[in-house]
Description:
This protein is mostly helical. It has one domain (9-468).
Amino acid sequence: MRRRAAILGWAGLGGLCGGLLLYGMGAAQAPQTQPPQGKTYFPVVEQDFAKVRADDQAAKPTVMQRQRTLLSERYDLANRPAQGVMMSGGRKAVQQGVRVKLPGGVTWEQLASMSADEIREKDLFPRGFLPLPHVKHATGGMIFPAFEITEINKQEGRSLERFDADFDLPDHLLPEFPPPMFLSSRPELGDVSRGQLLTIRNYFAILDGILTPVQMEGMRLLLTPFPQQQFNQTDDRKTDVQSLGVTCLDCHSNGHTNAAFHQTPDIRPQAARFRIETVSLRGMFNQLIHGSKRSLRSVEDFTEFEQRTAYFDGDHVIAAKKGLNLPDRASQVAMMAQMQNMFDFPPSPKMTVLGTLDPAKATEEERLGQEVFFGKGRCATCHPAPMYLDNQMHDLRVERFYKSQTINDMWIHADGPIKTFTLRGIKDSPPYLHDGRLLTLEDTVEFFNVVLGVQLTPREKAALVAFMRQL
Length: 471
């Protein structure tokens, strides 16, 4: 199901919000100093579909240019792959280097030595460390990368393309596609997807004889499209033609992630909601809480409540007219949860069964990174071995570093506690943090070096990245 957990610790934790500029078309405006007003329920207003579509299509170039301007001001978006470092499927290189742009006249070392108050008062918190707005924040909804849209249309003739907004980040900064799929029940098989994207059209042929009947039925349901706020059969949609909806694995491709994003359903008003980037379902069997803010206590609860909340932006009133699907707890939810609990992490050839490096296989740099991770860097406080998560909610209080303002229609405010997510296989899951604001592991290390004040040296930062690539 769509997640929604956030990556904590060195790969991403919540409680992170920020805002320094109010962007129009990339130009700063007067800051909004008061929280936005809004309603708990979305207005139920019938509008002419043809007019809505025409207006949205006409506005789309401006919407996308505004987002491109924001991204270019925040990040270096170049394609800069790390030499010899591939994602687990072996088809895509891991991107390297810090991509967040620093304010002029300051170095990372200088920034990390400052107090939160000084950074806030001098307006020095890097723009790329601020929350990343949804590409069309006032509307929200699921946005899929082009490669997912193309493959689903090819296999199923079902469109995930919206007429009002497109995906914003370049493909080279996203997970490999399609990602490999590993099963905890059959680790000896390796990638059971055979390099294909599993869909309702091919899943049975690929997995026959590998899954149990219960798991196979769970997979069928995870690949079955159900109506969603922007993808449905009514005129209140964002697709050219009526849509069957979306599936759980439209975002969690092959039980992993394709970096599709949405907005958390757990917050109101609309301007205060935050972008939520799809996390991997790998290792679900070891997670005890689910959801970025909801802290649901079982994958069954999460599976059921995603249909009631995230699919319809948290508004069950509008869901009723669009075809809300409420899967039966005993005969459907349990099977969907069982299948999710089978998705395993990719192999980690340099790690021991206790989740630490095998000294005989690791490089000197990786061993130093492990030492930093469990020591000076404080990463293991929230990400203990062997699963590298603590099943807790944490608040980093990142709002200490900036003044609340509005960026591209998003009101930046304190997030409060957000759930820790595992770091196992983390090199396969860019971008990082709950909203995808950090594009590389190097960005993530710099972020937490500032926020936690641990004063890492350049050598320790590089070593920490090298270690996390082996998890």
